[in-house]
Please model this.
Amino acid sequence: MIQTTVFDTKPYDREALLRASEGAGIDWRFLEFRLTRDTAPLAAGTQAVCVFVNDQLDRPCLEELGRQGIRLVALRCTGFNNVDLDAAKERGITVTRVPVYSPHAVAEHAVALLLTLNRRIHRAYNRVRELNFSLNGLVGFDLHGKTAGIIGTGKIGRIVAQILGGFGLTVLAHDPFPDPAWAARQGVEYVDPGTLATRSDVISLHIPLTPETRHIIREETLAAMKPGVILVNVSRGALVDTRALIRALKTGRLGGVALDVYEEEEGIFFEDLSGQVLQDDELARLLTFPNVLITSHQAFLTHEALSDIARTTVGNLQALAEGRPFSAGSVLT
Model:
């Protein structure tokens, strides 16, 4: 039996984890709030914590977890930029993640955002519900024959490239570790970032957040893009400099922006703030643009992806309890 505290729990997390852990010998303690230095003491009496993308595992938090005897931080996500890995290692805390879960979930959401934004489906839906059947302001463009730029050709980026290729787009790609054989099979052309920016009608981001990629979309890169481009980001919010993005939207340089992530989403996304005043002025400004579509980090939210995440997380917790190796590719410290 291994006792585990799950932070930032939503009903879909609880259901997936309970279903995946039947007979696994895991004693769950589900908490709805996020893990921070202040909430870390509530993990006392358990051997592991299970966390998500907006939990704050900085050095003070990990030091407190160490004092509580926590041996494992099990991330139920792929990204780990919210974890101080050096501090965890110093405290002897193992950190695991879910290296792979349904890449189709995220890729399909990226394409859904693109289609919705381009054809103004979200605006048309709201109009029709108010019995407004006018088509003014709903003109989009054919994707067929246009050019898409894919930044990052890991599992998700490749699926997006294949889907868009099926729509009849020319697909360009950039990745520091290109796969020419895959590109040749799919009819994808690897190019330098400048060429991708100037030729693409649609640009979709599929890269992790690192010090090198932080604000990869900024004033200079936005200025280099083809006028009227649609930008899609389902990866990490801080890949995009929000202030620079707002300026580009105000000047009309961008044709549209579709975001499933936001660089200051912590404490906002995954929460119901409908009865409050939004305190984030930049997000509030983004929401005023008619050519901006935002979803609250839901690209992963499919039955298949949740099952994959829960299965890997449960496997890592069992591995800790039984003293055996963790799931392949999941250990970070």
